Amino acid sequence: MESDKQLVEAAIAGDTDAFGALVQKYSNALYSVAYGVLGDFHLAKDIAQETFLRAYLRLPTLKNKSKVGSWLYSVAYRLSIDWQRKRKNVVSMEKISRAPASNDTEAEAIDLNSSEEIWRILNTLDELNRIPIILYYISEWSMREIAEFLGITLRAVESRLQRAKKNLRTEFASYLGDSISSYRLSADFKQEVMLQIPALIGIPCVYISVNDEKKSENWYKHNLGLDFDRTPNAGSLNIGFIVEQDVVPVPYPLFAFSTPSLAKARLTLASLGIELQETTENSNSFTFQDPDGNVLCMMQI
């Protein structure tokens, strides 16, 4: 069996079967993480798929290729948190599931075949203990594998699982594992992801060296309107970041942003505190810099 490092290197070299092996290995784990945050199996599946599509494009930026599992975990978790923040006009699941539970088991019907009831039960646990127990039942991994994936010690995993099981109500704790595991992703999930890979292969992408990926994403999103949450479309230019401790800025524009009004673009960027480079009177473009000093260009179309 090939190691994660070997699979990543092969995938970067264009071996889609190698990437498929990574999807097969980590699909239910990413799905578990997303479900542990969102409490919705359908959304969790979407987040897992989005994680793999982003990972496929960003694999060349992964420095420690043997840690691809924990890297995928961080991507899936961040996507889940971002999605959770965006949900509007929906009654908070947290408020519903935290409602006081009746101790009268005869009066309260518990249907462990209901996804809503499963989440209501699981959400009596805090997230720290909830995600490991969902991983345990859905991923079918050993505690050691879960520890490596989450980037914590084996003892911490054992402690969180014991605490979770202890805090779950005794009348359904013994049946919860079977109920959760019935929602595992099918083999079709891998196929669904892999069918989208060909469209991604031909997508042009420019990678920019930055010191802080999250800070750079926020800057490009806030000042230039880039949407890093979408799945890239064929035919569009996509920007990716390579995180480096000592950034060597690109001294010339690698691409240009377009605008129908150069004057309006200048005023908008200047109002955001971005320093603009002076241009000649009849120029149809101007340059400016991102926080790491990379030169960018704005061009009128």
Cα distance spanning the termini: 53 Å
- What's the main sheet like? 3 strands, mixed
Number of domains: 2
CATH fold call of the largest domain: Rna Polymerase Sigma Factor, Chain: A
pLDDT averaged residue by residue? 82
Query: What integer value in Å does the Rg equal?
Result: 23 Å
| CATH homology superfamily of the largest domain | RNA polymerase sigma factor, region 2, helix turn helix motif
Helix fraction?
40-55%
Counted by DSSP, the helix tally is 14
Ranges where pLDDT stays below 50 over 5 or more residues in a row are 89-110
Strand order of the largest sheet: 3-5-4
Number of strands: 5
Q: Bin the strand percentage.
A: 5-15%
What structural class do helix, strand and pairing data support? Answer: mainly alpha
In the CATH hierarchy, the architecture of the largest domain is Orthogonal Bundle
Q: Per the principal axes of the C-alpha atoms, what is the gross shape?
A: elongated
Succession of helices and strands: HHHHHHHHHHHHEHEEHEE
Provide the CATH top-level class of the largest domain.
Answer: Mainly Alpha
Pfam families: Sigma70_r2, Sigma70_r4_2
Organism: Paenibacillus psychroresistens
Domain RNA polymerase sigma factor 70 region 4 type: 116-168
Protein name: Sigma-70 family RNA polymerase sigma factor
Considering the chains and any ligands shown, give keywords for the structure.
14 helices, three-stranded mixed sheet, single chain, 2,3-Dihydroxybiphenyl 1,2-Dioxygenase, domain 1, 301 residues, two-stranded parallel ribbon, Rna Polymerase Sigma Factor, Chain: A, mainly alpha
